[in-house]
Design a protein that fits this description.
- This is Lipoprotein.
- Keywords: Signal.
- There is one protein chain.
- Helix 2 packs antiparallel against helix 3.
- The N terminus is likely disordered.
- Strand 4 and strand 5 form a beta hairpin.
- Helix content is about 30%, strand content about 25%.
- The protein is globular, with a radius of gyration of 24 Å.
- By secondary structure, the chain is α+β, with helices and mostly antiparallel strands.
- The strands form two sheets. The chain has a four-stranded antiparallel β-sheet with strand order 2-3-6-7. It has a three-stranded antiparallel β-sheet with strand order 1-4-5.
- The chain has a domain of about 120 residues: Nuclear Transport Factor 2, Chain: A (Roll).
């Protein structure tokens, strides 16, 4: 990560997490079938009017794991926006997804990057695994493919540094008083990625 080590730069990539399939259609079918069966068994010769049951919209509630993964994934676009923003705008952008000690580390990294006339390029491919949540703390591992990321000269666009594949990161997160998860640490592991992506 460029805010961890100036030789590893990332460009944000947003992943969309699709909600689980809703069980609402099944519930409606079961309720309709139950109503029809009861009406047929009533012994009445007069047909009973059909009833329409209107159920509230069934929007799946995101799990804690979904929330942890979402903020981790959101950190990459936020880092990119902060890199392009003025120095005064950077902290508010990053504070939405990062907390101490990572927040200050990212800010220092962006300042150093911009001072050398460099920008990030490319898109890391995220391969998160082993998400663990314990109260207000969480950890996850990522085996990133960074071959299409790096640093480039801000003026010429010339690629100066390139990323590698299977970069094993360990990410720590904390949930704040506002109940929002934020990334607090990111470290590269000495252990190789075991992911078979």
């Amino acid at each position: 990560m460029w805010w961890i080590n100036p030789y590893w730069l990332r460009d944000p990539k947003v992943r969309v997490v699709l909600p689980r399939k809703s069980v609402l259609p099944l519930v409606v079918v079961v309720l309709a079938a139950t109503g029809a069966a009861v009406a047929c068994q009533s012994g009445s010769t007069t047909p009973t009017p059909a009833r329409t049951v209107v159920l509230p919209s069934a929007t799946p509630t995101p799990t804690e794991k979904d929330a942890v993964l979402a903020v981790y994934r959101a950190m990459y676009p936020a880092g990119r926006r902060a890199e392009q923003a003025s120095p005064k705008q950077r902290r508010p952008i990053l504070a939405q997804v990062a907390t101490q000690p990572l927040l200050d580390r990212m800010l220092r990294g962006i300042t150093a990057l911009r001072a050398t006339g460099r920008v990030t390029y490319g898109m890391p491919v995220l391969h998160e695994f082993d998400v663990r949540i314990d109260g207000d703390r969480a950890t996850l591992h990522d085996c990133q493919d960074d071959r299409n990321t790096g640093q480039a000269d801000d003026k010429t666009g010339e690629a100066l540094l390139r990323g590698t594949e299977k970069v094993h990161l360990i990410i720590s997160l904390r949930r704040g008083m506002d109940r929002a998860w934020r990334v607090s640490q990111m470290e590269q592991s000495d252990e190789p990625c075991l992911s078979s992506y």
